[in-house]
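Hi P.,

Sorry for the delay on this. The queue was packed all week, but I finally got your sequence through. Input first:
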Amino acid sequence: MNTFKDYRQNKSIDKGGVMVTIDLSNVNFQVDPMMEHKIQMQIQSNPRFAQIINLNITSKIYGYFNYKVRMRENLNIAIKGETRSGKTTVGLSWGVYISCITRMPYTVYHICANESEYYAKVKQAKFNELYHVDEQKEAKFGSGSFREEMGIMDIQNIIAKRCIHTIWIYPTDFIARNSIYGFETYGKDLKNKLIRCIVYDLRKSVLGVMQPLGYVIVPKYQDPNYQKIPEDQWSEYRYKNSHDLGRPDFDSLIEEHYEQKKDEWIIKEQKREVGYHHEERFKLGIWLRTRPEFMEAGNKKKQRIIARQLFRDLTEQEIDEVVEVARMEIGLEELGKLRDEHVDEGGREDEKDEERGQEFIDSRE
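Then the structure:
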């Protein structure tokens, strides 16, 4: 089913691609109480904030998307918000929308679980493709990977040259990957399937506080053909989601695939005993243990120097972890040798005891 073709034929999009028919006469946005408190505090500190926060710039934002694509300039969209505040819906809907302008596919393949996956895929990206990075995982892994951080910075030339568009989603902060504007979820209307976001200019701040430009309303992408599929033709995952788990039904095939992929990420994380980066450094430590120059080093300081020469792209903390793994492996090996020697010596002593015991018995006889 070509959900993107259906979206391009939607009557709510004019010839320029700008969504213009959003009925605001019967909207009812529900807002997180703490988010509402945060907004009120900002209004008290800056009365002009109240005026700006009520400025609807929806048509300008969609016009901005179209302009950037027509001018062959890449889009970098940063989205943040609390869990289940609608940021995923915003990212998914805009991903489909922008793909309609670029006329490029936007499938579950283009949705990345983290920057590692994004980093790998962008290297093979085609001109004008869009990628969607959902909820970064660095904080979960602890120290993160300096190499990937630098790697993403290094591929900026690829992104610019191939005009790669990227949607960054992170729960607590804006990912500043050359993003000009940031969108923070601020209320959702479940009945009309709308999400409201405050728009911030990420280039300007006053006393460290980003300045708002207004708000944008994002209609959730819905595929009427998908919604009309008879229940007996649903996929097993869709049926289980709606009936067994009691969740709301999906509104498009891309949403179904997206949620299925997110569930797979969760299962993978639950089964994973150590993070990817820690596992990688463990393997590097095992390999370092086999290097003759490392084994010949007289102390830890010299071993660190050798590790630094071999792994120039690791941070100091990562070098320490790799060296500790290698030293631990050496220690375990030496411990094993001592144990074997003790067993052998112990065995010989037992034999001598048996001989002396037998001699004592023979003498008594």
